[in-house]
């Protein structure tokens, strides 16, 4: 099992992202994001247990979220990680708050325990749209990403700690409303 520290879109504003999940699922061998049973999110760190305990991860998230408000994140672009497999994701327009949260999580738990892609200097803020793009649909998926031509704003309003697979929320905290 693995432990992840996240901020997620619990309310209705995440519906636009979920609609994109359904579009991206057409390029996958099976719908990756709907299958999770979990809302749109940003992951700040993933740890393999038992190296890091659930309570340790949750306390790190609480420290990172201390004094923070809900995050209103704008997206205008779909990008991809080459993989394999190819992964499509939404790129945040202004990720200063996300980077601040990530730095706080990394300060609370030695990044050496974190999976490499989530360590300082390697982490890319992203909201995943699909993780199981087939090789046969690779070019269509990249064309889809390139043709994305709109702006959407999503409210990320819950900080949480989950274990997976399957995704199970260990602890969560609603973030206070307001602008920072």
From TrEMBL:
It comes from the Bacteria. It holds the Pfam family 2_5_RNA_ligase2. This is Calmodulin. It comes from Bradyrhizobium manausense.
């Amino acid at each position: 099992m693995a432990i992840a520290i996240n901020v997620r879109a619990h309310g209705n504003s995440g519906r636009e992202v979920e609609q994109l999940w359904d579009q991206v699922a057409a390029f996958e061998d099976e719908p990756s994001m709907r299958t999770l049973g979990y809302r749109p999110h940003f992951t700040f760190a993933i740890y393999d247990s038992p190296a890091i305990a659930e309570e340790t991860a949750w306390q790190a998230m609480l420290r990172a979220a201390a004094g923070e408000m809900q995050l209103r994140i704008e997206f205008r672009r779909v990008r991809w990680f080459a993989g394999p497999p190819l992964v499509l994701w939404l790129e945040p327009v202004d990720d200063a708050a996300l980077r601040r949260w990530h730095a706080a999580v990394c300060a609370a738990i030695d990044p050496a325990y974190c999976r490499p892609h989530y360590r300082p200097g390697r982490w890319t803020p992203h909201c995943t749209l699909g993780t199981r793009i087939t090789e046969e649909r690779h070019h269509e998926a990249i064309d889809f990403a390139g043709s994305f031509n709109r702006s959407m704003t999503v409210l990320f309003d819950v900080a949480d700690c989950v274990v997976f697979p399957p995704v199970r929320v260990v602890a969560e905290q609603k973030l206070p409303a307001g602008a920072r």
